[in-house]
Every structure is written in C-alpha cells, then in structure tokens.
Amino acid sequence: MLATGLAVLLAVGALAWLVRGLVLAVSAAEGKLGALQGLLITVVVTGAALTLAWGMWQLQNWARSGVLFLLIGVGLYYGLSQVFAGASEIFAGEQVKSLGEILLVAVRSLGRLAATGAVPAAIIFGLLRLDSDFEETRRQRVLVDRTVRYILFSSALSAILIVFLILLFTMREAWDSIRHVGLDTMLLGTIWRPGSIIGNSEAQLGLVPMIIGSILSTIGAAALGVPISIGTAILLAEVAPDKVREVVRPAIELLAGIPSVVYGLFGMVVLAPFISKTFLIRYNTGYGLLNAAIILAVMIVPTITNITEDAIRAVPKRYKEGSLALGATHWQTIVNVILPAARSGIVAAIILGIGRALGETMALIMVIGNSIAIPTPLNNNPLTLFLSAARTLTGNIAVEIAYAAGLHRSALFFTGVLLFVMILLTNVLARHFMRERQPLR
C-alpha cells in the first residue's frame, strides 16, 4: 500500500512538474537559450521521477533505494537549512541574545524540523520495514555491485586527478620564473631579494637559504621527535599496563588535534624566552632553528607514535613467544626481535613524520625568526647553528605571497612546486617501506 501510494504521488508530482516547466518555457522572458535549458531540466527531472514511480509500482528494489536516498538527501538539506537559519537568528544583531532567547529559537527550530520531517521519516521507516516485499533480480544485484565498484574506482581516481591538477596549476604559475630566472639560479642562488621588495627589476631569487632552513628544521625535529615517538610506541604496545594506555594514548591523539597556531604561541611565549636565557650567546633571541625543531618534534610525535605502535602490534605473536621460550628477556625480545620485524613500518612512520614537518607553516613562521640569510653558527661552536634564525620554504610563501607580483609571485609558486616534489618523494619512500616484507622460507 505504501509503495503504491508513493508511486502515484511520484507520478502526479512528475506530471505537475512537467506542466509547470512547459508553462515557464513558453512564457520565458530570458530568451530561447534560457527556455531551452529550463525545458531540458524539466524533462530530465520528470523522466527520473516517472522512472522511480514505475519502479515503485512494480515493487523493484532499485526504486526503493532511489526513493530512500532522495528522502534522506532532502532531509539532510532541510535539516542543515534549519540549523543555519536558527544560528543566523541567534547570532544576528548587535547584541548577544540572552540564554532564554537562545533556547526559544532552538526549540522553535527543532519544532519546525520535527513537524516537517515527521512524514518523510515515517516513509523512510516504512520502506525499510518492507524490505521483503521488494524484488531484486540477479541482474539487478550484479548491476548494483558494478555501479558501486565504478563509483569507488572514480573516487580513487579523483585523488590522483586532484594531485595532478594542483601540480599543473603550480607549474603553470611558476613557469615564468623558470623561463626568465632559471632553475639553476633559483636552486643554487644564495640571495633572496625580490625586485618587488627593493623596488627595481634586478631581483635575486635564490632559494638556498630557505631550502637549508627547511632541511635543518626537519632534521632537528626528527632528531628530537623520533626517539620520543618510538619509545612511546614501545611503551604503549609492549610495556604499559592498560590503565597507563588509557591515559597516554588519548594524550598523544590530542596532540594531533591542537592547531598549529597554538604551538606557535607556545613557542613564542614559553620556548623563546627559555632558549634566550639558557644559552647566553650574542644575537640569540630564542627565535631560531632550535625553537622550530622543538615545536616540530612535538607536532610529529602523534604521527610517528601511532604508525609505529600499529607496526609493532602487527608483528606475529609467535616471534615474541619463540624468543621468550629461548630464554631472552622481554627487553631483549623487543630490541632483537620485535623492532627488526617491524622495521619497515617504523621507517615508514619516520618518513611520514618528516613529510609532516616539511609541510608545516604557521607554527614555524611564529618561532623560527624568518631570516632570509643562510643559517650560520653564532660563535665558534658549530652547534650554535641551531640558535640562529632562518626561514623555511613554506614560511617564505606564507610571508610574501600577499604582496608579491610578477617574477616574485612566480618564484613563490616555484617554491610550492619544490615543496610538492620534496613531500611527494617522502611519500614515495613511505610507500616503499610500507610494503609488506616477503615471508622467510
């Protein structure tokens, strides 16, 4: 009964839509092109509705699925519209509404949503209960499976297409700098002095200072963050009791959700004064590679820890049991058996963490000092190199793109291309190391 009623309702609605579209097309004032477009849309919608009506009349399962998706989509659209309308009413005006007014608006919006959504919800519930009444032939099942497979395949291809379009766009914008300045000049030049800054056409667009800054900050972050991450992963996977895991694992996951600007504020307010007071060296302001490396190390800890823990847990238990049976201690088993077996996953985790560090922008802008000179030690100690200010490739783009023009803007896009290639290489390495190792024979 429900299916028959829906079929009649769809057919009547389709015919009404067709009549409305014909009337509007005949009386269209925007010209023949607009009338033709409106008529085409009307025919498509009418055909789809009549097809669904016929399927519901014949108790076809594909028609039921189509009606369910249609009702759910309309319901989501209307529900979000009510939410945004209520939010607009609450936050509109110059003064903040009282709690009572906010509750009144919320109740009114929920009431409208419940009143208008009761009938569609009842129809969805009824169609779900009538699952056994709808027929589905073997051919229809095969067609549905094939359609879903094509949709999933298209989704996977869309990621490749997006990456290709991003690379194509950045390469197009960077082509002027490649043609007029040259790859060798930008990749080997040590001076960054764009003409749009100094006011003449003799721009110097060497990216070596930023390349060195990115590499040094990433190396420092890896040196600080990788041991902490691997140690934490070993603790969570092999050593810690359940109560400790319940506390440490959410804390690690919380680090991944903190915005990068908050890390930058922490580096400015806490780390920079601490570094400047701890290392009493001339020109040490606390803003430099060490500050950036510490911040990046904290930011990559969740990525490396989670992947390393998964790699350790993926090691077959018989490896551990065999080692313990031969008389090895738990720590000897971890160092000599479990970690070597999980080596590919651990290396992949480190590479992905390095990729995360290379792509960071906002936090580094706030703590690294943004010097466009090549980092040099502040005194005779080579380790003071990490106390000097620097600039990364990502920071170079973020700081100067707002006012760049001409070759300067194109060179910044080439910086993006260079970053794209570097991160792509790190992902390729991660993909290589994440491949499953061949079992021993």
Could you walk me through the main structural features you see in this protein, from its secondary elements to its overall organization?
The protein is mainly α. It has 2 domains: 135 residues, no CATH class; 227 residues, Orthogonal Bundle (MetI-like fold). Helix content is 76%, strand content 1%. The protein has 17 helices and 2 strands. It has a two-stranded antiparallel sheet. Helix 8 packs across helix 14 and helix 12 packs antiparallel against helix 13. The radius of gyration is 31 Å and the shape is extended. The N and C termini lie far apart (64 Å). 28% of the residues are buried.
Q: How would you sum up this structure in a few lines?
A:
This protein has 441 residues and is mostly helical.
Detail the topology: elements first, then pairings.
Elements lengths: L1 H25 L5 H26 L3 H31 L7 H31 L8 H43 L2 H6 L3 E2 L1 H4 L5 E2 L2 H32 L2 H16 L2 H19 L10 H25 L3 H9 L4 H12 L1 H17 L2 H6 L25 H8 L6 H27 L8
Antiparallel strand pairs: 1-2
Which regions are unreliable across 5 or more consecutive residues at pLDDT < 50? Answer: 437-441
Tally of extended strands? 2
Number of domains: 2
- What are the secondary-structure elements, in order, as H or E? HHHHHHEHEHHHHHHHHHH
**pLDDT average, as an integer?**
83
Features:
1% strand; 441 residues; MetI-like fold; single chain; disordered C terminus
